[in-house]
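4.2 Preliminary Data

To establish feasibility before requesting continued support, the project team ran the inverse folding procedure on a target of 477 residues. The structure was first converted into the token representation described in Section 3, and no sequence information of any kind was made available to the design step. The complete token record follows.
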């Protein structure tokens, strides 16, 4: 780095450090308090309580404290800001440091927060490069930055003294930010807009900011853009083990074929049969196949309650594998396709893998027309709700890591126990945990034994209720 370039950078940073040292108390007097309150709500929705959190450009530390982390570390280059943060939030750790030269001794965090800071940085890519050293594979980087469309309005508000003053800013587009993340080894998971009305107007601000940023064309009027990213995926060093959960109710005719066709994967495959109070001889059929296949790892459970969701949860609780898979006992999804699901998740490319039946032609009789239309509608609805493309919400084959499922189960109270199928509980939970969701196309086959347990009209109404419920808990918050 040449002396001239280094001097220019040093002067840039010194000017900003002096500015924030002189203005460390200004947030108490700024009308921007409502805007910062809204940001806290958004970040709390994205970051679960009890996570370890690093905040870059933490200022007074109010946002970091609002997240209620198990470990909270705030970094700011303003000595006055850090001094104030330490007084206000003595249970947090605050460090005086320039983010461009950050070194936290190899400590890693669950979440890294950068709120309204990238607009002020000398070199955004250099900061992202530094943050790689604070990441583990599961780390999520989440930040917000001003929309360039609001540049004139913010400058006017600062001149009028109704918002926090600022020095000249970087005005970055979403494409700029995604590119900078990619250059630094991060993968963008999702992006969205927030805050159409940044000042408190009774009855108007809260309603407008809850709904309008989620609806076109109003979302283009939002003040701030959010991005959520993760480090580029890396496969785990050891071959993970697998547990395949098979919920079986009235599936006697499929048991022998399931035992023969479920493949061995990774470091070893366990088959967990959960029998669901069948009226045929399914339980005895499973016992017979277990006796015939002593070399295979297998378990047999009697389902404690009702519904596929209950059976899947019982199977997950009994499973010992690193990776958890759900396979419908009707063999409409070929068991051999599980290997493809394994390859996607074991490679690190995805953290939650969902099967999709709507890519290849569906075998005659496998799916009724009304079911097909319903699947397409719910796929659109859930893609919009979750912010990630979901083409087939009702495909029974879903795969995730056991440790991620445990986090999902620990946070299940956020949504409640409302899903008899189990599919939506997992999709909602994966989205809430900010997992990378990918879909694997499969060829959907016609059931050869028994009848489906799905009641399309009654269950369709239930699914609509789930969509409305999820919109209130995920989208319009």
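Position-by-position output of the design step:
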């Amino acid at each position: 780095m040449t002396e001239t370039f280094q001097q220019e950078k040093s002067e840039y940073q010194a000017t900003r450090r002096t500015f924030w040292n002189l203005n460390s108390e200004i947030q108490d007097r700024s009308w921007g308090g409502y805007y910062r309150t809204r940001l806290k709500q958004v970040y709390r929705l994205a970051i679960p309580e009890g996570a370890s959190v690093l905040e870059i450009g933490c200022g007074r530390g109010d946002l970091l404290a609002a997240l209620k982390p198990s470990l909270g570390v705030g970094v700011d280059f303003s000595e006055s800001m850090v001094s104030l943060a330490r007084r206000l939030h003595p249970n947090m750790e605050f460090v005086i440091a320039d983010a461009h030269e950050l070194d936290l001794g190899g400590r890693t965090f669950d979440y890294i927060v950068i709120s309204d800071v990238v607009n002020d940085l000398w070199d955004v890519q250099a900061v992202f490069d530094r943050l790689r050293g604070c990441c583990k594979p599961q780390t999520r980087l989440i930040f917000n930055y001003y929309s360039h469309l609001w540049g004139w309005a913010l400058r006017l508000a600062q001149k009028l003294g109704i918002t926090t003053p600022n020095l000249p800013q970087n005005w970055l587009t979403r494409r700029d930010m995604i590119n900078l993340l990619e250059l630094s080894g991060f993968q963008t998971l999702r992006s969205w807009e927030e805050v159409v009305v940044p000042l408190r107007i009774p009855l108007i601000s809260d309603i407008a900011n809850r709904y309008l940023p989620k609806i076109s064309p109003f979302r283009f009027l939002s003040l701030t853009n959010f991005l959520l990213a993760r480090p580029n995926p890396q496969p785990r060093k050891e071959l993970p083990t697998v547990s395949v959960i098979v919920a079986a109710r009235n599936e006697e005719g499929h048991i022998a074929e399931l035992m023969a066709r479920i493949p061995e994967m990774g470091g070893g495959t366990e088959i967990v049969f959960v029998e669901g109070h069948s009226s045929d001889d399914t339980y005895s059929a499973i016992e017979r196949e277990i006796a015939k296949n002593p070399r295979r790892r297998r378990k047999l459970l009697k389902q404690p309650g009702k519904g596929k969701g209950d059976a899947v949860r019982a199977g997950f609780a009994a499973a010992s594998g690193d990776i958890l898979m759900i396979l419908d006992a009707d063999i409409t999804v070929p068991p051999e396709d599980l290997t493809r699901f394994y390859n996607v998740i074991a490679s690190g490319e995805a953290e939650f893998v969902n099967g999709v039946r709507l890519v290849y032609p569906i075998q005659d009789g496998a799916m009724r027309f009304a079911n097909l239309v319903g699947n397409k509608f719910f796929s659109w609805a859930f893609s919009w709700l979750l912010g990630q493309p979901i083409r087939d919400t009702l495909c029974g084959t879903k795969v995730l890591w056991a440790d991620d499922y445990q986090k999902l189960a620990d946070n299940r109270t956020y949504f409640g126990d409302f899903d008899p199928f189990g599919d939506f509980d997992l999709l909602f939970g994966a989205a809430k945990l900010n997992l990378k969701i990918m879909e694997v196309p499969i060829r959907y086959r016609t059931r050869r034994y028994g009848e489906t347990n799905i009641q399309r009209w009654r269950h369709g109404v239930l699914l609509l209720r789930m969509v409305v419920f999820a919109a209130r808990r995920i989208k319009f918050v």
